[in-house]
Design brief:
Elements lengths: L1 H27 L13 H18 L1
């Protein structure tokens, strides 16, 4: 009976250690950024507006 309790206790401790260290390993990885479509990118839209403004200034 004592051996069974020791085995269950060892499994519980091993499970707790595994969960605690596995969680830390996932936190340290850098998050991935999704690619931004050109029509959603504010810098790209600003650049297009500037190009259009320059063309209008040159034409008229």
């Amino acid at each position: 009976m004592l051996a069974l309790l020791a085995a269950v206790g060892a499994l519980v401790v091993a499970l707790l250690l595994w969960r605690s260290f596995a969680g830390q390993r996932m936190v340290t990885s850098p998050p991935r950024r999704a690619p931004i479509a050109p029509d959603d990118d504010p810098d790209f839209l600003r650049q297009l507006a500037e190009q259009q403004r320059k063309r209008r200034d040159e034409e008229g």
